[in-house]
Design goal:
InterPro entries: 4Fe4S_Fe-S-bd, 4Fe4S_Fe_S_CS, RnfB_subfamily. It comes from Rubrivivax albus. Residues 3-32, 44-75, 77-106, 111-136 form the 4Fe-4S ferredoxin-type domain. GO terms for molecular function: 4 iron, 4 sulfur cluster binding; metal ion binding. The protein is of the alpha+beta class. It has two domains: 1-53 and 116-156, Alpha-Beta Plaits (2-Layer Sandwich), CATH 3.30.70.20; 55-112, Alpha-Beta Plaits (2-Layer Sandwich), CATH 3.30.70.20. It is 23% helix and 20% strand. It is built from five helices and eight strands; from the N terminus they run E-H-E-E-H-E-E-H-E-E-H-E-H. Strand 2 and strand 3 form a beta hairpin. The longest helix has 11 residues, at 17-27.
């Protein structure tokens, strides 16, 4: 069963625990700037929105990479950057329509979410449940339920 990150901005408080957990998991330091997940702050509305790689089926990043440094982890389905193969050309950053692959100046390589090998640190660290790791087939369930409720979803008599 494939799983995926489910991000629910309505539950995000902007605490940045996800960013801290991610940077610690991947670099051993608490440094949000090194995080592969980011919390965007919409100052006008006060809303906080977590975002990271969606591990999309189209995988433009994977197909764009001229040296095939991005591969699919067969266990998690994550599109993973092999840092020894990556030449830092940034073609994947341009091809990603969501802007979730980042160039790292210090290494001269790119980084993106790899789902922490199947146990995402961001989901574990999130105190409000804004980030969960769930069955990939059900990531849209909350949206479907909300839409049904708008249409008058009531229990049958």
């Amino acid at each position: 069963m494939q799983k995926s990150l489910h991000l629910n901005p309505e539950k995000c408080t902007g605490c940045l625990q996800c960013e801290m957990a991610c940077s610690f998991e991947n670099y051993g330091v608490f440094a949000p700037a090194k995080s592969r997940i980011k919390v965007f702050d919409f100052h006008e509305t006060g809303r906080k929105v977590p975002y990271t790689c969606t591990q999309c089926d189209e995988a433009w990043c994977l197909h764009a990479c001229p040296v095939e440094a991005i591969t699919i982890d067969k266990m998690t389905g994550a599109k993973v950057v092999n840092e020894t193969t990556c030449v830092g050309c940034k073609v994947c950053t341009i091809s990603c329509p969501f802007g979730t692959i980042n160039y790292v100046q210090e290494t001269g390589k790119v980084q993106k979410c790899d789902l922490c090998g199947g146990d995402p640190a961001c989901a574990t660290a999130c105190p409000t449940g804004a980030i969960t790791y769930i069955d990939a087939n059900w990531t849209g369930l909350d949206k479907m339920k909300a839409w049904a409720d708008k249409l008058g979803n009531q229990a049958a008599a």
